[in-house]
Specification:
The protein is mainly alpha-helical. The protein contains 9 helices and no strands.
């Protein structure tokens, strides 16, 4: 994305803020799921019949943990909505069509996320809760990709990158977000619907292998940006595997060492919630890596990359 406008620095700042603030409802939502507090309030958009902003939230801290985390999730959702409005406002002031479209898309996504969360409460549907979590990961990834495209060094990286990535490696990197998203969906089924545990474990092994192969291709390339992307994929998938193993132990116990899982325990809430959030980071990292490889390919900077049906463009610019 090559953009020139007077307010681009403001868009960059608010895009960064949006990524950071998006972690609040995501983190709180993960804790809500772990504690099974999604129906702490049976109404929406009100909370126990009160205005969401006027509800005495802090009074629940010591007496009702479920209501405290669920209402905190709702407030965090309102906060990201306010930030998304400001981002869209600065985006429209920028005047660039691509920036306007991205910021408007982020705002619409926030609104849809809020409505989906509300429908989950009103209908008391676990399937909607699972969907709400998956779309939350997609929303966060979109915010991170948008911030990447606004990076001042983006065109500089593109111009100086060299072709060192083989065709198989490039293709794997570009489909990696799909693989991770499918695995994230299996994790959602396990967390929300309490099924497909074996499939989730098998999917974790497949995802790990795919991430390792893609990361090796990226790290071994001659491009600085690709090496950085590969290191990020390695770091996030490594963290996710460790948290995944910890989540299995925290949720189902470890008989061989005498550990018995306790539903609603502090360690279970922390580890399982972190596992979900780390999954979103992995998805976002893979999406960014995929975008980087695709953009380099389209610029003809991956001369060794040839994917069926996709020919590299020579001398073009990235809008």
């Amino acid at each position: 994305m090559s953009v020139s406008c007077d307010n681009l620095s403001s868009v960059r700042r608010w895009a960064t803020v949006t990524c950071a603030v998006a972690l609040l409802p995501i983190g709180m939502g993960s804790v809500v799921t772990t504690l099974k507090a999604g129906m702490a309030f049976a109404d929406w958009p009100s909370s126990d019949g009160q205005n969401m902003l006027l509800y005495p939230w802090l009074s629940d801290f010591a007496v009702n943990t479920e209501k405290f985390v669920e209402h905190g999730h709702r407030l965090a959702g309102m906060l990201i909505g306010f930030v998304a409005i400001l981002l869209a406002w600065f985006g429209f002031r920028c005047g660039d069509r691509s920036v306007r479209n991205w910021t408007l898309g982020i705002l619409v996504a926030v609104i849809c996320q809020g409505l989906l969360g509300g429908a989950r409460v009103v209908l008391n549907a676990q399937v909607l809760a699972m969907t709400h979590s998956i779309t939350g990961g997609l929303f966060f990834s979109s915010c991170v990709v948008f911030r990447l495209l606004l990076n001042r060094s983006w065109n500089h990286w593109l111009a100086r990158s060299e072709e060192r990535l083989p065709a198989v490696g490039a293709f794997l990197v570009m489909i990696l977000p799909v693989i991770v998203l499918l695995q994230y969906g299996l994790g959602g089924v396990l967390r929300h619907l309490h099924g497909l545990r074996t499939e989730h474990v098998i999917g974790a092994v497949i995802t790990l292998i795919a991430c390792l192969l893609a990361a090796i291709s990226l790290v071994s390339s001659g491009s600085r940006v690709l090496r950085v992307a590969g290191i990020c994929v390695l770091a996030t998938v490594g963290l996710q595997v460790l948290l995944g193993l910890g989540s299995l132990v925290a949720r189902f116990g470890f008989k061989s060492v005498g550990y018995v899982a306790v539903t609603g325990s502090l360690e279970q809430a922390i580890i399982c919630s972190l596992h979900t959030v780390a999954g979103m980071f992995l998805l976002a990292t893979c999406c960014c890596s995929s975008v980087i490889v695709f953009r380099l390919h389209c610029r003809g900077l991956l001369a060794s990359t040839r994917i069926t049906g996709v020919e590299p463009l020579r001398g073009g610019s990235v809008a």
